Amino acid sequence: MKKTIGLLLALLVMFSLPLALAEEVLTTQDSTSESPAETTADTTTESSIVEETTVIADTTEADVVIEQEVTADAGVTPDSALYTFDTLADDISLALTFDDAAKAELSLEIAEERLAESTQMVEENNTEAAAEAEAQHEEALTDAEESIEALESNGDNETSQDALETVTELQNAVEGHAAKVAAVKDAILAKKAAQGWDAEKLAKMTAVFDKIKAKAQQMEEKTEAKKEKVKTKYKALSGKTDAEVELEVQELEEKTGLTKDREDRKEKVEKTKEAVKKVQEKAQKLKEKNKELKQKVAEVKEKVKARNTAEEDQDETESVSTESSTGAVTAKVSKGKKR
After folding, report:
1. E-strand spans in the chain?
2. Taking the model in full, what pTM does it have?
3. Other CB atoms closer than 10 Å to residue 320's CB: what's the count?
4. In a 3-state reduction of DSSP, which class is residue 204?
5. What pLDDT does residue 16 have?
6. Which residues does 103 contact at the CB level (< 8 Å), separation at least 6?
7. pLDDT score of 285
8. Whole-number CA gyration radius for the chain
9. Average pLDDT for residues 57-61, to the nearest whole number?
């Protein structure tokens, strides 16, 4: 609802890569130069090789990871003329949110959307727009950091205890976002490498996702630091020992789902590694196959070229022979007339 209001206010304010590694093999068939069986075999071989060289990279495993991790709707993307209105609407929504915890949650939701935008732009091979989404992602996480840091933990024992639970809940969201970023980065880059992106474009997108990942990790660290501050404040106000506070933190982590979600994220990390490895292995095999097919096409083209040259030589020989025979006949006729 807030984003809708923000968007309305903003409007008022601003008013495969398929790999084709072989050229088409052209051949001129002459029924007198080869037997029908040889001609059919050559034609079939050539057609088969040309068809096989248009092989599309299989990136299924990477696609599954991306689909599972990118759960937010990209919505309006940076390549749209309406993108400025979309980001302004988010800014207005944040300005209308006064509770620090709620503002941190909203900022994280916006960061999820920016991650989705970056991913979609890379999928569409629009590197410039992906970089713009990355900049907006960084801004969203900066807003979340500031909101988390501003959480109030002073006052009485109850206030600091509530702050500790709130920070723990936000920590789970922050760690979850960082894990998504890492998984999407590895999957999308492996996919694009398999599809044949050149080194320059891959390097550019690697830099973009490195920035996204670094910012997410930075926020993890700052959230953990904030949690330590709140724990210290809670310990001082409650008069509890370190062991008692740590036990309470463990209970809060289980209550908020942080403990379980951490275990789930560890499993996802391993699955992502496995998926990326499979995509890379298949890409390498495809590269080797295409190299082999390219060599076969080259061999067939040489064979066709040699055959055509032989046919031309044969035609020339026959032509010379015909001319010689004709000349001999003409000379004989002329000699007969003289007699």
Report:
1. 19-20, 54-55
2. 0.73
3. 10
4. helix
5. 39
6. 94, 97, 143, 147
7. 87
8. 35
9. 89
| Residue range 7-49, pLDDT digits in tens | 445 444 444 333 333 344 334 444 334 444 444 445 445 545 4
Rounded to whole angstroms, the Cα distance separating 191 from 63 reads: 8
Domain boundary assignment for the chain: 2-18+54-299
Helix axes 100-123, 127-149, angle to 10 degrees: 170
Q: CA–CA distance from 80 to each of 56, 74, 84, 121, 123 (Å)?
A: 29, 12, 9, 11, 16
Give per-residue pLDDT as tens, 203-229: 999 999 999 999 999 999 999 999 999
CA torsion sign, 127 to 129 to 135 to 137? Answer: negative
300 within 8 A of 48, measured Cβ to Cβ: no
- Of 168, 177, 255, which is closest to residue 216 (Cα–Cα)? 177
Comparing CA positions, the residue from 218, 142, 223, 212 lying closest to residue 183 is: 212
Tokens linked to 284: 């390498």
d(CA 77, CA 113): 10
Instruction: Name the strand (E) or helix (H) holding 41.
Output: helix 36-52
DSSP code of residue 24: P
Q: Which two tokens stand for residue 16?
A: 């495969």
What burial class does residue 181 get, using C-beta atoms within 10 Å of its C-beta: 0-12 exposed, 13-18 middle, 19+ buried? Answer: buried
Indicate if the alpha-carbon torsion angle 107, 154, 262, 185 is positive or negative: positive
